Amino acid sequence: MASTLDRDTELLESLLGDVLEEQEGRAFRDRVFWLRDTAARLRDGDAAAGGQIAAFIDRLPAAALEPYVRACSTMLQLANIAEELERLRRRRAYDSHTSVPQRESLAAAAAELSRHPRADVEAALAQLDVRLVMTAHPTEATRRSVFNHQQEVWRAMERLNDPRIGRSRRALIEDRLREVLTLWWQTDAVRRVRPLVEDEVRRTLFVFESILFDAVPEIEHKLARTFDAAWPPPQPTVRFGSWAGGDMDGNPEVTPEAVRRTLEMHRATAVELLRRRVERLAERFSQAGDRVFVTPQLEAALDRYGAAMPDVAARRPNEHEPLRRMLSFVAERLDATRRGRPHGYADPAELEADLELIRASTSSQRVADGRIARLLSQVRTFGFHLAALDVRLNAGDLRAAAAALVPELDDAPGEAARLRLLGAAIADPDGPPPPEVFGVIATGIRDVGPRALGALVISMVQAPSDVLCALLLLRRAGVGVGELPTLPIVPLFETVPDLEAAEATMDALYADPAYAEQLAALGGAQEIMLGYSDSAKDGGFVASQWELFRAQERLIAAADARGVALRFFHGRGGSTSRGGAPAHRAILAQPPGSIRGRIRITEQGEIVSQRYSHPELAIRSLEQTLSGVLLATLSRDREAPARWREEAQRLADRSREVYRALIHEDDRFETLLNRASPLDALTRLNIGSRPSSRAPSLSLAQLRAIPWVFAWMQNRLLLPAWYGAGTALAEGDRALQREMAREWPFFRMLCQTLEMALYKSDLGVARRYLSLLGEDDPARELWAPIEAEHERVVAAVLDIWQTETLLANAPRLLERLAHRNPWIDPLSHIQVDLLRRHRAGDPSAEGPLLQTISGIAAGMRNTG
């Protein structure tokens, strides 16, 4: 019997087939499905099928291949919709069987935490502070127009899943789906121009407007109900940040003006969303004045606003409905706030006070805890800023800017001298002004509020003086001077050597008098960002994970010794080699004592669309994160025994040695990367405003970690996610490794994440990219050791789990992943052929080639 996932997939494929027949002809439709079926035969071991696909592709000109690329890509995106619908069905099934809480849910966490003293649970809830940061990275390949069509397909499929609809209604919905799919088919899948920074900001804001703004009060209410906590919460447990429009590190398009404009867009969106929710509430709050107790405070506010805004009182004559009348004044004040007119709110606290006046006069606990409580939750979470904008700058740029203000820095004999010079300059607020962006930061804090900006993030921090350079520039702009609050400075430690030196760097900062004043102004709180991407690119996945684990242990111990409240900011991506892993599992795998109710995590690339494409799935994702933080905060996991740590260190050292020998030390490797992957084409794909490299060249040293990972996802090798792990695991004690996987959350997560990457890798497909190398190219010789290492790591992972096949212990996940392959595989075959033509100078190959990149990205999902 076909599963519901299979039924949805077959229906969507059939409907798109109808569209393809109308738009391109029946022969085209049949050939598209022939491609799928032939690719499936090849995957099942029919070697002749590969030759048939190659012959078909070879005889078509590039322009004729383009519709096949679009068809396969669209089928993959429809498969993704079917997967998300299946997740939604599972969530609803758990909700309907209350005796069995869904795994990783708040209910499951509450059941597990019932063994803890109530006071401990309440303390953990009180300190819960989760911050999720949306980032703009070149891994989200789906256009906004296409995304809108996807949402419409999603809604229609949900209606079709309603068992109450009849045949006529079903036929109408299917016709509507054919219409939407036709519009989708006629839409460019790839942008013709590279998006502007403002486009990325708008896309991020769209996620808040369409999903998150209303999902947050739902998850807050669920948390309060599950743990019998205060509702609405006096402080939000989850908040949001953004890098879109603030990430100046290496992106010349993010200018000070872009930062200023982004802050304006955030404010305008937040205020308008609140105004609309107040208007909706006013439509429902029809209570007559003689049926509720109107407090004297509300009566006084009504009189005051009636006198100050007589036009509103005249325009909306609702004298006998005091709550609705007050909401009319609130809406008017919000409109004035957005337009910068008199009577606007000075800050969200004033709005909150007005809503509390209304809430106190509802004369019903049910009403007080209903829509108006949800609105209060939104005000407390999003304020007038929506999401706190981080400004990210490179340490090298900060050093140069500081040296322009303090020329002696260039000749300082060492780090101690630099710290002394910077400390003296920080104490002098009257020196030369800093670069323009610091003035924009100061204006943003002053005009939008202190929550408008999250932090100044410094990438590639190598020394304490890098952080003091940032502090000097902030102080010269007036940030942290007089009445203007300071801004947190977050050092980002990215490479393995930087992670190893992080403890010494932070210890020197904690001891520095100027930085001690900065910490005191922030209530003794410090945030440190951990870079998963560059550390993995530097030393491989296993070494990166262990160095990040050890760095957190050292950093939390150093902070505790100084009485500093430390929060880690995890800069994870979607792919394995960029720290990607299911959020709940990844949180529980952190070192014991490193969470303490507070965490900050990046939501990057296509991960945003996966987690926040539907209100219920967004709530589920937030629930998994919150439950993970609660469990990690109260975890009683024992410290890892010495034998586990010794084995983890050996694995890290050996895997790094093998990894670096190939990636960084073999002169043939860059040729393999540049020829056997679409790296050269990635730079031309208009999926992000951010350049692929920190320098004009595409050398491995300058290549950013994101396109580095993206390229290996495209050719299906996923090399950075597993290379080196096979040798390291094979040389270890297997019985010990099994014990670690059973009992140590860190090592269990590492092995599970490796297993996922290995399942998604496909050496059969990757081998076809070798044909892009010359027959006598020395880089071809690297294939044998790569293939052997892959065999070793697969064998090791299977032996640790004692299973016959990858993902054998996760049948539902296996089903979801497997049903994409018949559509991804043809795209890979076409991509190889188009890369060959493109590099031979065929200009017509570029368009469809870029579409194959977008299509494979959609199919692999966690591309970067």
Describe this structure in words.
Strands 1-2-3-4-5-6-7-8 form an eight-stranded parallel β-barrel, surrounded by nine helices. It is globular, with a radius of gyration of 28 Å. The protein starts with a helix and ends with a helix. It is of the alpha/beta class. Helices cover 63% and strands 6% of the residues. β7 (565-571), α25 and β8 (598-604) form a beta-alpha-beta unit.
User: DSSP helix count?
Assistant: 40
Using the CA coordinates, give the radius of gyration: 28 Å
Q: Quick one: biggest sheet?
A: 8 strands, parallel, barrel
Average predicted confidence as pLDDT: 91
Structural descriptors:
single chain; 864 residues; alpha/beta; 8-stranded parallel β-barrel; 40 helices; 8 strands; 63% helix
